[in-house]
Specification:
Beta-galactosidase, Chain A, domain 5; 39% helix; nine-stranded antiparallel β-sheet; cell membrane; protein transport; six-stranded antiparallel β-sheet; 16 helices; chaperone; 613 residues; membrane; alpha+beta
Length: 613
């Protein structure tokens, strides 16, 4: 491997390390808007009614004072007290338990998935999670999550769907608020329709929107809590397809304005809960977040969605709520851009998402269509990728062979000019030109492989197909393969030992050692940097997905074998030497760029000589 090839690979490594740090850096926000979050928490805190008839300590026959209830709850006084009852909407992939208290989901289970420790996977569980519409009551603002709805009987529709209706009554039977949930026989989306019947005079005059409070708590589902927090994000998209997101651990508050907000999604590492405006759009959203410092709570999001309200006598606003996995094909099938929540490439490397979408994912899905072992799929995918970049790899090895042939002449030039780097550079360029060798021949092929390397870094940790899939000693390819848990934390490394990461590091060092004779051993940077980079990556990759480190390890092994085969049996060094000597006999035609470069080098050389005088 020639000097320029090494520079190319080192540049590739620096960019890759920079990309990794860009994605993994945890920005702890010490100035969280505590007052704002406390006010939101108090607003959404369940209110204790004057008398709870469901309490076992209630006195038999006692009734609350109707005037007191009317003063506190206004037209919704009849809904202030009640007994909580549940009903279930269930299909083959999701089970939603709803309560008449608030007319909202009490729990949501994804039936095809388990947590890392084998427990049922619950996307909604606990009192923090709530869906609540704000309604006026005299001078107060009530949350429907604190009120008792009527209804709650599951109805089976002719198409096999299940539907349930919850009605929030007022003192006037002709005026009510209604929530209707409909779950189809297949799929992760439940239809949620908000209906306001005859409430145009109950709601404040001039109010042209309804305020929907949505609190979502992400609980620990995976082995690596830190990685989960890094992937706990809020994504959103406007009607024009514009998409953006923020990470809960880095942003405490975000206000989404401008109208025509199509959907808002709270994304966990492998699952999401998404609110989708079905026919219209949300007018705006105000989202505050909190990341607890202890316990098994990954993050909490307090969202306020503004629903346009035309004050019609029979007003309805249909919403689709998705409780499902971050599976690319599934999300893309809804044709709403939901697949954008999967991190296939971001930042300065956002372009690699197209490599994943157009190459990696189709090949991965094709292989998984008839192969059940995902370790074997990764092996075949690695071979496919190496075949795909084979022309660049071969060109890099040919360039290395040419530089190896020219090495004696380059060493002679270096000895001739000594410390005069300018003169050495001019003569070296002349040598390259006369021999027909491009100094970038080894650098560019290495850089052209960068999109593939970064695409793999994005794809494997985001692929839910690899979740809880085992291979060899790795119990879960979507997280690190620990063969030894340490009783202490090693700085810049972690508290466990990943065997695939160690194998990746060892093969990287072997590859660097194998190419040591083709680098400039007189330059300490060029001499030792190929060995430093794998050690640096050891600490970074130790906590990354086993599928990723297995891929890099396997790719290193293939590189070692390919380089040995190509340089031993395919590349003819004598033929290359003869070709270079033949090129030297040909007249050299200089491009304008080359002429300007040589002129600049000549002037710099003259200036250095004048300074010496």
């Amino acid at each position: 491997m020639d000097r320029n090839s090494v520079i190319g690979f080192l540049l590739l490594g620096v960019l890759l390390v920079g990309y990794i740090f860009f994605n993994q850096k945890q920005q702890t926000n010490a100035n969280i808007e505590k007052a704002r979050q406390d006010s939101i928490a108090n607003l959404n805190k369940p209110k204790t009614p004057v008398v709870d008839t469901s309490s076992s300590t209630a006195v038999a026959g006692s009734t609350p004072d109707s005037l007191q209830l009317a003063g506190q709850y206004g037209a919704f006084a009849n809904a202030a007290l009640g007994t909580a009852q549940t009903a279930v909407l269930e299909n083959e992939v999701v089970k939603i338990t709803l309560s008449n208290k608030g007319g909202q989901p009490e729990s949501v289970q994804l039936k095809d998935f388990k947590t890392f420790d084998g427990a049922p996977l619950m996307l909604v569980k606990g009192s923090f999670n709530r869906i609540s519409l704000q309604v006026p009551a005299n001078n107060n603002t009530l949350n429907t999550a604190d009120l008792y709805f009527t209804g709650g009987q599951v109805q089976k529709l002719t198409d096999g769907s299940q539907s349930i209706s919850y009605r929030l009554p007022t003192s006037n039977p002709a005026q009510y608020l209604e929530f209707v949930y409909t779950l189809k026989p297949k799929g992760y989306i439940v239809d949620y329709t908000i209906r306001a019947i005859g409430l145009e005079n109950v709601l404040p005059s001039g109010q042209n929107f309804l305020t929907l409070q949505w609190n979502s708590q992400s609980d620990k589902q995976e082995q690596d809590m830190q990685n989960e927090q890094m992937n706990n994000q809020v994504h959103y998209s406007y009607a024009n397809g514009e998409h953006d997101y923020f990470t809960l651990s880095r942003t405490s508050h975000e206000k989404l304005e401008g109208g025509k907000l199509k959907w808002v999604s709270v994304k966990q590492q492998f699952f999401n809960t998404t609110f989708i405006a079905k026919n219209g759009d949300f007018a705006s959203a105000d989202i505050s977040t909190k990341v607890p410092t202890s316990g098994n709570i990954v993050g909490q999001a307090f969202s306020t969605l503004q629903i346009p309200y035309n004050r019609a006598h029979d007003f309805s606003f249909p919403i689709e709520i998705m409780y499902g996995p971050n599976h690319y094909k599934t999300l893309k099938s809804y044709d709403m851009g939901l697949e954008k929540i999967i991190p296939l490439g971001s930042g300065i490397f956002a372009f690699v998402k197209y490599v994943n979408k157009w190459i990696i994912i189709p090949v991965f899905n094709f292989l998984s269509g008839f192969i059940s072992n995902y370790g074997v799929i990764i092996i075949l995918l690695t071979v496919f990728i190496r075949l795909l970049i084979a022309p660049f790899t071969y060109q890099s090895y040919v360039s290395a062979a040419k530089m190896k042939v020219l090495k004696p002449e380059i060493d002679a030039l270096r000895a001739k000019h000594g410390d005069d780097q300018q003169a050495f550079g001019v003569e070296q360029m002349k040598l390259f030109k006369s021999a027909g060798v491009s100094p970038l021949g080894g650098c560019l092929p290495a850089l052209l492989q960068l999109p593939i390397l970064v695409a793999m870094y994005s794809f494997f940790p985001s692929s839910i197909e690899l979740r809880q899939e085992s291979f060899l000693w790795a119990k879960d390819l979507s997280t690190y393969d620990s063969i030894l848990n340490l009783p202490f934390d090693v700085p810049f490394y972690g508290a466990h030992v990943s065997l695939f990461t160690i194998l990746m590091t060892i093969t990287s060092l072997i590859l660097a050692f194998y190419n040591r004779g083709m680098t400039d051993q007189s330059n300490p940077v060029m001499k030792y940097m190929p060995y430093v980079m794998p050690i640096m990556l050891l600490g970074i990759f130790n906590r990354l997905a086993a599928a990723l480190t297995f891929y890099y390890f396997l790719s290193n092994v293939i590189s070692i074998l390919l380089q040995w085969v190509i340089q031993t049996f395919i590349i003819d060094h004598d033929k290359i030497h003869a070709q270079i000597q033949e090129n030297k006999k040909k007249p050299v035609s200089k491009s304008k760029w080359t002429e300007r470069l040589e002129e600049m080098q000549r002037r710099q050389q003259e200036m250095q000589q004048q300074r010496k005088k």
